[in-house]
Amino acid sequence: MNILVIGSGGREHALIWKIAQSSRVKKIFCAPGNPGMAKLTTCVPIAVDRLDELLAFAKRERIDLVLVGPEVPLTLGIADLFEREKIPLFGPKKAGAQLEGSKAFTKDFLRRHHIPTAHYETFSDFDRAVEFLHTQAYPIVLKADGLAAGKGVLICQDRAEAVAGLDAMLRQKVFGEAGRQVVIEEFLQGLEVSFHALVDGHSILPLDSSQDHKRVGEGDTGLNTGGMGAYSPVPFFTPELEAQVMREILLPTVKGLQQEGIDFKGVLYAGLMLTREGPKLLEYNVRFGDPETEVLMVRMENDLVDLMEATVSGKLKEHTIRWKTGGAVTVVMAANGYPGTITKGDVIEGLERADSVVEAVVFHAGTLAQDGKIVTNGGRVLAVTAQGKDLRQARERAYDVVEKIHWRGMHYRRDIGLKGIGQRT
Asked: What residues make up the domain containing 257?
């Protein structure tokens, strides 16, 4: 098979690393890719939003299966385009991608189908939104309706902070079109869990649990990011909780999609909050999470190509997923300034030493090859991922590798996975 992966981050590197282990694969292409994955794939300089160019390339190279990593091509309708040309693509069509592309759409969908989530209201008018704030308890959450690269969520501790946040979104338009509407919702307390499931239009095949670390600072402080690290599995996400999530959230979602005429095939990634009242949905994504993908791929024993094909062809019922025992931890190493204005072009040192560690994989996220060296080229630069007999050993191995790598101004959290071994952060 010839496979095309679309994207350029750590998630795509991890997916390609896994796909490359399949005996069924002849050649892997990645558009646009990054230098870290160059040994496994042929990188093609086509941006993820250039749908017509991606289609032309897929036709020219006789691609048998396409895997879309990021959300943008899905919300633009790449699955609809490729379906018309009869090229199998793993990922939902534009109608289903609204679950990530519009938080207002998702919240309304959840309300229609009685799926547990935070109470909310949606506003496009600044004055009406401010008036609503008078009636609310704090802290409160503001969410830009559209895609904002994981940064469109503000947790406001008081009314003044919330008004300032609304002003930034609705008046100053700091998130552009993504902030044209704002969802204001109650602040949920509890433990967060990332729960991925494959959906083939009617059947659901859940993946193992993982936990992301969104805040930039240790102890879950500072600004939200695209994710500073992850671990899998999550010990406190019990089989009983998984069954409850399937029964109350995932199954009603797939049934609701069917009722609304939306044929969803791909990954449904539920961001969950385990509250005192039970699991509630924070948000849906319609692709693999990042950095959760990294820990899931190193633990998965199945051939990923088989699972993707079964998803696209509607045959998930014929499959189960096997997981390696123990645990996995990913530590994201970020560029100077992230998640604000970042520095690019800093030379990364120590990669050869890091790559020699058998129990770990250094997935590239924001890197560039320049004058024979690897330099920083994004906010999240590397996703150092390690396995172990348990989460404690996986953490130790991941941080041992992190210490071998250096560039000017780099930073990372030192508490990734502590919740998984029962330590407070």
From this structure: 191-318
